[in-house]
Design brief:
mainly alpha; Arc Repressor Mutant, subunit A
């Protein structure tokens, strides 16, 4: 399951950098959960070709993440926003400040979605 989530994140961040053919095959495998055989039949290519394309495409996107680190940064910002919300929620004094902090943190999270 973890691998599917990782593949989905990679595709969400870097899918637009792939060729249309890579995008289509990857989407069929990851998001539509089609088997290699099903994809091979619908696309008129071999099962091995589908397998190789998915592995190669995954490696390409993993390299993008290694160089650009967008997923790592996104996760770091999301965790910071969570901490900010938690801290502001636990404050007892300074309601105005608390409200501003909560609004800012919620906006950060919204922007990241």
């Amino acid at each position: 399951m973890e691998n599917i989530v990782e593949q989905g994140l990679l595709f969400d961040f870097y899918g637009q950098l792939l060729t249309p053919h890579q995008q289509k095959i990857y989407r069929l495998a990851v998001y539509e959960d089609l088997s290699l055989n099903e994809i091979a039949e619908t696309e008129g290519i071999s099962k091995q070709a589908v397998h190789d394309l998915i592995r190669r495409t995954t490696r390409i996107m993993q390299r993008y993440e290694e160089h650009l680190g967008m997923i790592g940064r996104f996760d770091k910002i999301r965790r910071s926003a969570d901490r900010l919300i938690g801290a502001a929620s636990s404050m007892e004094d300074g309601k105005d400040f608390r409200q501003l902090v909560l609004q800012a943190a919620e906006q950060i999270k919204k922007d990241l979605e």
